[in-house]
């Protein structure tokens, strides 16, 4: 792949600006290896906590007209189980970002320490799951709690800490500001949008948990707006996430201010080829426009 696409992110070098988003195929070494082979510049694991967790009963994912609605309930085998998986991935040369969650700042810090000791190249704090009690967005919607979590993690690890924010707040720029003031090295915007769907014949909510998070093309304009807002508020890299299905979407996020992007739901619709097709498209765009490096387009929309 061309030097033009090489992306520097908090000291990590990505061959291109695309990353696997947390929650999609990010459990096992083999699924993540297949994403790396498919051309992702970095991978983010499924969110891992201190202890194994079963998650919610089914149905946990439903397809709606404009995307996917999910409420899995953070099922995961626990951070310790992940050590073998992580070891295998270390020799790929592709940055491995471990997504972590916790129910208190101390728990976040403990999981963070373990993830780093297992070889995480960076951490992404999931303070934005829209439907988990006492964690997720309950932290990410409260600026002082958010700052406490970020501060505690930063005290305990020496790797870059990305903070994944929820769009379900009045002012995402302010939340990004609180996270950065507490030490966040980058902001990922956004996690899913809190949503629900109801089956009309039975009158039952479709998800067992009733509420879930909407992902896919419907949320892309919300995510682009969030990236734009965060970029103009804080002085750390922004990672765009939400509804990306094409190279044009990636360019749009970068013009709004993203230094890199995450792709998730589109894998379910388009398969793993999306990473290569997107990077090919961006490369052609940059060449046609005369840009020598992808970072030249980051935030260009702010000129207007
Ligand atoms: C889930 O496991 O329910 C989704 C996690 C998230 O949205 O952060």
How are the SSEs ordered, and which strands pair?
Elements: E1 7-9, E2 12-14, E3 18-20, H1 29-37, E4 42-44, E5 61-64, E6 67-70, H2 82-89, E7 96-100, H3 105-117, E8 122-126, H4 137-140, H5 143-156, E9 161-165, H6 172-181, E10 186-189, E11 193-195, E12 212-215, H7 220-233, E13 238-241, H8 247-256, E14 258-263, H9 265-270, H10 274-289
The chain binds succinic acid.
Number of helices: 10
CATH class division: Alpha Beta
Proportion in β-strands:
15-25%
Strand order of the largest sheet: 3-4-7-8-9-10-13-14
Please summarize the sheet with the most strands: 8 strands, parallel, barrel
- Strand runs, count: 14
Give the total of domains: 1
Distance between the termini: 32 Å
Give the ordered list of helices and strands.
EEEHEEEHEHEHHEHEEEHEHEHH
In which range does the helix fraction lie? Answer: 25-40%
The CATH architecture would be Alpha-Beta Barrel
Bound molecules: succinic acid
Structural class, judged by helices and strands? alpha/beta
CATH topology: TIM Barrel
Write up what this structure looks like:
The protein has 304 residues and is an alpha/beta fold. Helices cover 34% and strands 18% of the residues. The chain is built from 10 helices and 14 strands. It has helices spanning 29-37, 82-89, 105-117, 137-140, 143-156, 172-181, 220-233, 247-256, 265-270, 274-289; strands at 7-9, 12-14, 18-20, 42-44, 61-64, 67-70, 96-100, 122-126, 161-165, 186-189, 193-195, 212-215, 238-241, 258-263. Strand 13, helix 8 (247-256) and strand 14 (258-263) form a beta-alpha-beta unit. It starts with 6 loop residues before the first strand and ends in a 15-residue tail after the last helix. Bound molecules: succinic acid. Succinic acid (SIN) binds at residues 23, 47, 70-74, 126, 129, 191-192, 213.
């Amino acid at each position: 792949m061309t030097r033009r696409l090489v992306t520097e992110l908090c000291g990590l070098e990505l061959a291109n600006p695309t990353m696997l988003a947390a929650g999609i195929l990010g459990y096992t070494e083999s699924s993540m290896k297949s994403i790396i082979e498919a051309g992702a510049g970095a991978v983010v694991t499924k969110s891992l906590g201190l202890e194994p967790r079963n998650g919610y009963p089914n149905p946990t994912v439903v397809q709606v007209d404009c995307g996917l609605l999910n409420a899995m309930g953070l099922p995961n085998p626990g951070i310790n189980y992940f050590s073998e998986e992580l070891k295998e991935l270390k020799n790929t040369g592709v940055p491995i970002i471990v997504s972590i969650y916790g129910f208190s700042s101390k728990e976040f810090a403990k999981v963070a320490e373990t993830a780093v000791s297992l070889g995480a190249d960076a951490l992404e704090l999931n303070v934005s799951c829209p439907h988990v009690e006492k964690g997720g967005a309950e932290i990410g919607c409260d600026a002082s709690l958010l700052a406490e979590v970020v501060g505690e993690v930063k005290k305990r690890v020496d790797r870059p800490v990305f903070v994944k924010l929820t769009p379900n707040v009045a002012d995402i720029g302010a939340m990004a500001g609180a996270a950065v003031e507490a030490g966040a090295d980058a902001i990922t915007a956004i996690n899913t949008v809190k949503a629900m769907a109801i089956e009309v014949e039975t009158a039952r909510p479709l998800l067992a948990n009733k509420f879930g998070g909407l992902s896919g093309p419907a949320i892309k304009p919300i995510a682009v707006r969030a990236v734009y807002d965060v970029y103009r508020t804080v002085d750390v890299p922004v990672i765009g996430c939400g509804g990306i299905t094409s190279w044009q979407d990636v360019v749009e996020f970068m013009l709004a201010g993203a230094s890199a992007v995450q792709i998730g739901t589109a894998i379910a619709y388009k398969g793993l080829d999306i990473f290569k097709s997107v990077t090919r498209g961006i490369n052609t765009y940059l060449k046609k426009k005369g840009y020598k490096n992808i970072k030249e387009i980051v935030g260009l929309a702010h000129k207007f």
